Amino acid sequence: MSELHRIETDSMGDVEVPQDALYQAQTQRAINNFSISDLTMPDAFIQALAYVKQAAARTNLELQLIDDKTAHAIIDSCQLIIDGAHSDQFPIDVFQTGSGTSSNMNVNEVIATLASQQLGITVSPNDDVNRGQSSNDAIPTAIQVSAAITCHQQLLPALKHLEQVLAQKSQQFSHCVKTGRTHLMDAMPITLGQELGGWQSQIEHARNGIEQALDTVSALAQGGTAVGTGINTHPHFAAIFTKNIAIATAVPFTTSSNFFYSMSSQDAVVALSGQLKTLAVAIMKISNDLRWMNSGPLAGLGEIELEPLQPGSSIMPGKVNPVIPEAAAMVAAQVIGNDATITVAGQSGNFQLNVMLPVITYNLLQSISLLATTAVQLADKAIMTFTVRDEHIKQALSKNPILITALNPVIGYLKAAAIAKKAYKEQRPIIDVAEQETNLSRTELESLLDPKKLTEGGIAK
């Protein structure tokens, strides 16, 4: 044995562990076995698992299943991890045992060591920290706790901020009339406010979907222990545990109505991931619209100017690119890919346990974090700060032959089509050609073809 190591013992025998490590034998075995990637379990998950252990200790204390000193030493040790201390003591690879048992024991061992140091006696990672629990209910519970906390604390506030910025910008440009587009081709006019309002509604609907999915995610598996029957746990453990973790996290958790469902499947998390994908699709759409509208400035649409944030080329001086929408679109692509991984992993609920829990955790929490930060970046560095190129918009709108659509009820589709083709061919304003080709007066045409009026719908009169 090296002087820098100590011997730890578990049910399989002796293991060398780094002298200063807070973890013990089972964690070291996992480190030795799973040298697959440089990815470790997210901090949010480790902190959620510490919340689980803390709530379990409080529950065991209430049920008089553990003595007061041991319980409070465990509770205090959990709080250190929740507060972000000792984050370097959780080195196990994401690609580990599918139940996440290695990560569960990693957290159990670190908490046990800290509690033992506090009391001056040995606290067991299995018999004390893990009392009334199994990896098979603790890990699914920690996944859902971490997802709910990060959604409530990070993602949902970020989405509300993005909605607010979109609402403000929509109001600011409610009278700015522009060419609408379908199939990337000129269509009837809309206001920029209407366009932004559509984006706002997309984000709002995505947020509502996430909130609805969180209702199911908030129903926890803790209490099912090994296979869902609750073996080796007190009959009141689950209800008291849920009360304790809800108080500690300020998230309205409930007890699952069926532990077999919550442990053998990850359907609740798959559904949440699906809603995150819907949000990613909305962010991709908004990002691409911003890029198109900003394109140019001379040979593109040139409707808006995004805030210039950095040089856009190492060779072309003066070039500035839409970097924030591009970054947001890449985040959307990543989240869509994460959802595919979570979907495949969700199918691995073999009999009484899903066996791809760690990779579900990693991808889910990455998606939540990426979407939260991206929503704020998109709001603050792209949408809030862009300006409108009014003259460019008006010039394109005045020559838009599609405006003739408003005259369909008055002169008929075929006559209107002929006027549109002539206006396009001669590159003349549609109103000039319509005055020449119809019996309508200039005054009547100005009223019928008023772009602002056309954004309000209805039938021309």
TrEMBL record:
Pfam families: FumaraseC_C (PF10415), Lyase_1 (PF00206). InterPro entries: Fum_hydII, Fumarase/histidase_N, Fumarase_C_C, Fumarate_lyase_CS, Fumarate_lyase_fam, Fumarate_lyase_N, L-Aspartase-like. Pathway: Carbohydrate metabolism; tricarboxylic acid cycle; (S)-malate from fumarate: step 1/1. The keyword Lyase applies. It is an enzyme of class 4 (lyase). Residues 13-337 form the Fumarate lyase N-terminal domain. CDD domains: Fumarase_classII (cd01362). Keywords: Cytoplasm, Lyase, Tricarboxylic acid cycle. Its EC number is 4.2.1.2. It catalyses: (S)-malate = fumarate + H2O. It is found in: Cytoplasm. The active site is at residues 183, 313. The record marks 326 as: Important for catalytic activity. It comes from the Bacteria. Substrate binds at residues 99-101, 134-136, 182, 314, 319-321. Residues 403-455 form the Fumarase C C-terminal domain. NCBIfam families: PRK12273.1. Belongs to the class-II fumarase/aspartase family. Fumarase subfamily. There are 2 substrate-binding sites: the catalytic A site, and the non-catalytic B site that may play a role in the transfer of substrate or product between the active site and the solvent. Alternatively, the B site may bind allosteric effectors. Homotetramer. Involved in the TCA cycle. Catalyzes the stereospecific interconversion of fumarate to L-malate. PANTHER family: ASPARTATEAMMONIA/ARGININOSUCCINATE/ADENYLOSUCCINATE LYASE, FUMARATE HYDRATASE CLASS II. This is Fumarate hydratase class II. The gene is fumC.
